[in-house]
Design a protein that fits this description.
By secondary structure, the chain is of the alpha+beta class. The chain has helices spanning 51-54, 97-103, 116-122, 173-178; strands at residues 7-12, 20-32, 60-65, 69-75, 85-95, 141-144, 152-155, 169-172. The chain binds a DNA duplex through residues 30, 32, 39-41, 44, 47-49, 63-69, 71, 73, 85, 87, 89, 115-118, 120-121, 157-161.
DNA sequence: TCGATGATTGAG
DNA sequence: TCAATCATCGAA
């Protein structure tokens, strides 16, 4: 996927002190489409929550799930009419690791951002970031272009029971071996 | 309005 | 294997 290897950057301004910069290399993503994709939030049409998926590409789509977790997406539309987004599932932490550990309550580096909800915690993601332009380096959450990893593989998606035939989960093979990505490769039948 | 549910995580 | 936990959505 296009996003793999790029850097997700989160800038936080707390207590009026200098801006803190948290970032990580994107090592795992999942794509979600429109009406042909039953697992997508956009499947049933546009709602206030998924409006970003129908808007301009390159925006942040932040949503709250399971009562506890924030997930980060980048809106993307493969073709004019469609809606869609790419869920960022895992990062390799780069900047502000110490800070992330605080947000994540002192966990190990490998498990800091190895899951969608964990990224939400580690990067202090809030709903107010929804709709931010992620192509603008001034945004408090944005993408910086990096180097594409050599080995990328596509697998079945995780965490949803719908449209399992679509192999739209993309991971960087090298990073997955190091343990930076979610480790549920086999789903229970 | 009300009830079901989910692109998850962490503990048991 | 299972509970936590709540915003969102669709049906009533």
């Amino acid at each position: 996927m296009e996003l793999l290897g790029n850097k997700l950057v989160r800038i936080i301004s707390n207590t009026g002190e200098k801006l803190k910069r948290l970032s990580g290399i994107i090592v795992e993503t999942e794509a979600y489409g429109f009406k042909d994709d039953a697992a997508s939030h956009a499947f049933r049409g546009q709602t206030p929550r998924n409006a970003v998926m129908f808007g301009e590409a390159g925006r942040a789509y932040i949503y709250f799930i399971y009562g506890n977790h924030f997930c980060v997406n980048v809106s993307a539309r493969p073709f004019e009419i469609e809606a869609g987004a790419v869920l960022i599932r895992a990062l390799q932490p780069v900047e502000g690791i110490k800070c992330m550990k605080i947000f994540r309550k002192n966990s190990e580096e490998l498990s800091l951002t190895s899951g969608p909800g964990k990224i939400g915690q580690a990067l202090c993601i809030q709903k107010s970031l929804n709709g931010q332009d992620m192509t603008d380096r001034k945004s408090h959450i944005h993408i910086e272009v990096g180097v594409k990893p050599p080995g990328m593989i596509a697998t079945q998606r995780i965490g949803t029971s719908k449209a399992l035939d679509k192999k739209w989960r993309f991971v960087s093979l090298a990073k997955s071996k190091k343990g930076y990505v979610t480790n549920k490769f086999s789903s229970r039948s």
